Automatic annotation (TrEMBL):
Keywords: Membrane, Signal, Transmembrane, Transmembrane helix. The keyword Membrane applies. This is PEGA domain-containing protein. InterPro entries: TPR-like_helical_dom_sf. It comes from Chondromyces apiculatus DSM 436. Residues 1-28 form the signal peptide. It comes from the Bacteria. The chain crosses the membrane at residues 272-292.
Length: 322
């Protein structure tokens, strides 16, 4: 954000005072990178001379992080004031005053700036609405407020702000509030409506019908496999029966015919079991699919299943229209 040249000149006049303050670092913190902090401070000075307050403030904040000093904080407060972030600037001026000793000759200048800007600071008071849950969480522009802050008039920068209110088992609700300089507002906040209870896994009707449908298709698959076994073994039995007629004329069998006859018992068992499994699987699968369709909304299309015996074997038939 850029301002008129008159604002730039006013800012430049106060820069000398900021430089004087910058010579005394914070006693409670040790410098981390004073060289980089100084480079950022000088770059911020150049940005301020051009009226580029956004860039200047960003560099000053980085400089303060690398080497905290009252002068840098004072300079940053002036920069934020130029960006009309009044509450932020006021808080920085107060921080500078608190870090200066009681006999420091720079305190009158800082106090003067605090008293000049204080009447311009907007205040927003947030209160929990009647009936709001006690475990609600309030975020102001994405930053969580302490519960003790509810009911207090908190300084806030002018402009639009988004408030987000949360609570377990409730929908999130947002409020948008806008304040001007010196304005004071109060707002009652509460989370959204109660969320519906979450059904336990597998309890929904849709899941039940889906599971039944899956079981139906599995049963059909088993039935189809049984029918295939019955068909294959039936074909082998027909082939062996034709061979036996040639090898056992007048019921007198050749050695090969005797061998075929004696070894066909297993095929008979497999054929009977295949037919039993095939018919049972198809019948069970069909019933399950019919029941699962009864739990769903009617759909267009129709599907039918059936087992059809054939000479020496069989087939599983599936017909459908969609």
């Amino acid at each position: 954000m850029r301002l008129h040249s008159s604002h730039v000149r006013a800012f430049a006049l106060s820069f000398a005072a900021a430089c004087a303050l910058a010579v005394t670092p914070a006693a409670a913190q040790s410098p981390r990178d004073p060289a980089a902090a100084e480079a950022l401070f000088q770059a911020a000075k150049a940005d301020a001379a051009k009226g580029d307050w956004d860039s200047a403030c960003a560099k000053l904040r980085q400089s303060q992080d690398l080497d905290p000093a009252p002068g840098t904080a004072f300079r940053l407060a002036e920069c934020e004031e130029q960006r009309t972030r009044i509450a932020t600037a006021w808080a920085l001026y107060v921080e500078v005053e608190q870090r200066l000793g009681p006999d420091d000759e720079r305190r009158p200048l800082v106090r003067e700036r605090i008293e000049a800007i204080a009447p311009r600071v907007p205040y927003l008071t947030l209160r929990a609405a009647a009936g709001a849950p006690g475990d609600l969480e309030v975020l102001r522009d994405g930053v969580t407020l302490a519960k003790s802050a509810l009911g207090l008039a908190l300084p806030i920068d002018p402009g639009r702000h988004t408030l987000t209110v949360r609570a377990p088992g409730r929908k999130e609700q947002q409020f948008v509030v806008e304040l001007k300089e010196s304005e004071k507002k109060e707002l009652e906040v509460a989370p959204g409506e109660v969320l519906p209870p979450v059904a336990p896994p597998g309890s929904s009707e849709g899941e039940g019908s889906s599971g039944m449908r899956t079981a139906g298709f599995i049963a059909l698959g088993v039935g189809a496999a049984g029918a295939v076994v019955a068909g294959v073994t039936g074909g082998l039995l027909l082939s062996r029966n034709a061979t036996l007629k040639d090898e056992c004329p007048n019921n007198v069998c050749t050695p090969e015919g005797v061998d075929i006859r004696d070894n066909s018992g297993g095929l008979f068992v497999a054929n009977y079991v295949g037919w039993g499994v095939g018919i049972a699987g198809v019948a069970t699968g069909t019933v399950l699919l019919i029941l699962s369709r009864g739990k769903e909304a009617p759909k267009q299309g129709r599907m039918s299943f059936g087992a059809t015996p054939l000479p020496g074997g069989g087939a599983v038939l599936m017909r459908g229209s969609f």
